[in-house]
Amino acid sequence: MAFSKERERKQYLQVFLKQYTSEFPCIVESRKGKHFAFCAVCGCDISVSHGGKTDVVAHVSSKKHNIIPIFEKVNLSLQAQAPQIHVLRSLLLELLRDIFSRFVNPSWLKRSPELLNLDYHSREAQKGDEDLIIGQETRTVVDKLKPSEQQEFFEAVRHYFVTVCDYMRHKFPLTDPALLNAEVVQLKTLDTMSFRKRCYLSNRESRKWKRSAHWR
After folding, report:
1. What is the pTM of this model?
2. Which of 14, 34, 184, 209 shows a CA-CA span of 20 to 30 A to 174?
């Protein structure tokens, strides 16, 4: 009787379908079996046995999928008890460079010392499909796809990286004057900072003090 129920339960389990990859290029077949899918963005297997496409949608909409693991380093750094505004810009630029290194040719990074001026949208500036950094496990899974599916997958990867970089450039305060000059309080770089930057911060703090004194 128990064996019969188990057999009946398995009959209703959902399996991975090729159409999942067509709708979500980052979702491909898993080596764990037909009841799983592999997310190339997160580098993890997800079960599709209960809801099928619903399980896939739940994953790509989840916080885990939408937060890139490399962002965790910045998040942890900014959670320090001491104020971190003086290193915020350098952390964000380091993060941007890290993402660039995953899909942009090293030669283009070298010739563009100013990251914010890098033309990463250009295919000429981007690595070939075989050199895109997507992780060894993801690469192993993708190598088993059909050529047309691989092409679709890598296009999605490029679009993903470009979208992330676009978001960072337009939403992150990479050119904020306050951050540009806040580096003056970082003791490690104090001796190399320009006098103009020191004056900027000094004057700004002076104005803040005068405003606060006026309202006392």
Report:
1. 0.60
2. 209
Do residues 175 and 44 touch, judged by C-beta distance below 8 A? no
Helix (H) or strand (E) holding 185: none
What distance in Å separates the CA atoms of residue 32 and residue 45, rounded to the nearest whole number? Answer: 8
Tens place of pLDDT for every residue, the chain, 216 residues? 444 555 555 557 999 998 888 788 778 888 888 999 988 777 788 999 999 999 999 988 876 665 555 666 655 555 555 555 566 777 888 888 989 999 999 999 888 878 888 999 999 999 999 999 988 888 888 888 889 889 988 998 898 899 889 988 888 877 777 766 665 555 445 555 566 665 665 565 445 444 544 444
Instruction: Report helix, strand or coil for 79.
Output: coil
pLDDT recorded at residue 215 = 44
Helix axes 85-103 and 147-171, enclosed angle (nearest 10): 160
Closest CA to 165 of 105, 113, 98: 98
Phi, psi of 106 (to 5 degrees): -55, -35
Ramachandran class of 176: left when φ > 0, alpha when ψ lies in -120 to 50, beta otherwise: beta
- 67, 60 contact by CB (below 8 A): no
Q: How far is CA 171 from the centre of its chain?
A: 14
Domain boundaries along the sequence of the chain: 2-66, 71-175, 176-216
